[in-house]
Design goal:
Length: 478
């Protein structure tokens, strides 16, 4: 029955892990979609911004402005002005009137002094490229748009007007409609002030709404990018959100997958596997009553073999093979969680001289005593120790700061010294140990050998500066 329960728990753990994997895949998919949409928007906005700057440079060039309207039009406006979803590029004078219009040699009659982008550039000479909130275009029949604009200044720095280009929101609608989001997913482009520029599924009543008071938006502006789960205030659907803040534009791209979509396939698989596992577990319980005694004997034998394969026979600590598994697992965990990973290298000082003087049996006894000191001074379940080889030991300390690692190393060093095992070949007259400590916050492209090298160098430093001490690596830990 215990084995059947274990099998059931293992199945549950496997299903839970597959649930986590489904969430991880959804996060990665959302990230890829967000990056793709972000790059498309950045590329187009860069072209629009360059076109605006070219217009401003032309307006400030007297020769261009003295040209006939048709020639001036060709010099000021490149082919970007005819791009799909792009409105006219306009030059407004200091009063907000259109003075140059990419859509016509003769400027249309309109005044935009009441627009927010006009006021921003008029009142703030350093506004740079400004992206407006959504508005209804007066020149294109009320088409929902946003404006990209730059200030035009006179040689003395005073306000001379605004160069702007209108981007039809249909561009974002078309871009987002091509993304595969699932039946309840969503994607949105949001201004850093909280204005909703575009959202898919599309709802015209949501465009322009300010969501700065929503809990989701507060998380959007708290970091350059990230993911989290929350329930949308717009439709009440719980989603996994992935967001990215544009590095050079005041925009946020958000891709959200509904939990119901993420777990749909997993729920079907979990129901099928769980049912089969329950039937198998019941059958196994019935069989185990007949074979219980033999199975228990076999399990005991296998457990002993597994223990022998994973531990060092002399010291009882983990062996080198198990250490490799522990290092790999804890390093990946630290890299995933961005936590500090600490390592201690413990080396018995002048151990060869000890063996030569007192014999190998005494050396083995000394190593076993040192191993006990190490084991007694690491208390957390996540901490582990292993015999690295010969008289060297390694202590793995996940989620431990450099100061914490050095403190534990000092406790181990003091405990070994307090054993007071006679060692005539040591400058201290007793068995001592030198310890190298290193702490590291792993990057994506680093492996565990980086912190191993740092700890080894720290150990070498401890040896070179007198032994019987703890040396902390000077490599950056966080």
């Amino acid at each position: 029955m215990v084995t059947a329960l274990f099998m059931t728990a293992l199945c549950a753990a496997s299903l839970y892990q597959s649930r986590l994997d489904a969430m991880a895949r959804a996060t990665e998919t959302s990230r890829n979609l967000a990056v793709m949409a972000q790059r498309d928007i950045e590329r187009n906005f860069e072209l629009y911004a360059l076109s605006l700057q070219a217009v401003i440079d032309g307006v400030n060039d007297p020769e261009v402005m003295r040209s006939v309207p048709r020639l001036r039009h060709e010099m000021l406006f490149d082919r970007a002005a005819t791009a799909t979803y792009l409105g006219s590029i306009l030059v407004l004078d200091a009063a907000g009137n259109i003075v140059i219009d990419s859509g016509s040699d003769v400027p249309r009659k309109a005044n935009f002094a009441d627009r927010k982008y006009f006021a921003v550039h008029r009142d703030n000479p350093s506004a740079g490229l400004y992206i407006s909130d959504p508005y209804l275009s007066r020149l294109r029949g009320g088409s929902p748009s946003i404006a990209l604009s730059r200030r035009i200044s006179r040689p003395d720095g005073s306000f001379a007007g605004v160069a702007m280009v209108a981007v039809d929101l249909e561009y974002f609608h078309h871009l987002f409609a091509g993304l595969s989001l699932g039946s309840h997913g969503s994607v949105a482009l949001i201004g850093r002030d909280g204005a909703m520029i575009m959202r898919q599924p599309y709802d015209r009543h949501l465009i322009g709404r300010n969501i700065r008071d929503a809990s989701t938006f507060r998380q959007f502006i708290a970091a350059p990018e990230g993911s989290f789960s929350d329930t949308a205030t717009i439709d009440g659907v719980k989603r996994l959100y992935y967001f990215r803040n544009f590095p050079h534009l005041p925009l946020i791209i958000m891709v959200a997958s509904a939990h119901s979509d993420i777990y749909a396939a997993w729920q079907h698989r979990a129901l099928t596997i769980g049912s089969l596992m329950a039937v198998c577990a019941l059958g196994f319980v019935g069989l185990s009553f007949a074979l219980g005694a033999q199975l228990r004997r076999r399990m005991r034998a296998e457990s002993e073999l597994a223990m022998l394969a994973r531990t060092d026979g002399l010291t009882g600590l983990n062996n080198r093979r198990t250490l490799g598994e522990i290092l790999d697992r804890e390093w990946r965990h630290a890299r995933r969680t961005r936590s500090v990973f600490s390592l201690l290298f413990v080396d018995v000082d002048r151990f060869k001289a000890y063996n030569d003087t007192y014999g190998h049996q005494a050396g083995d006894d000394a190593l076993a005593a040192v191993a006990r000191c190490i084991g007694e001074n690491i208390r957390r379940p996540a901490d582990s120790a292993a015999r690295y080889g010969g008289e060297e030991f390694v202590v793995v300390l996940p989620d431990t700061s450099p100061e914490g690692a050095a403190s534990i190393g000092e406790k181990i060093r003091a405990a070994i010294s307090d054993l007071a095992i006679e060692h005539a070949g040591s400058e201290y007259g007793r068995v001592t140990a030198s310890i190298g400590a290193a702490a590291w916050t792993p990057d994506e492209d680093e492996d565990v050998t980086a912190v191993i090298r740092a700890a080894d160098e720290a150990l070498y430093n401890a040896k070179a500066t007198g032994r019987n001490k703890v040396a902390l690596s000077t490599a950056p830990a966080a």
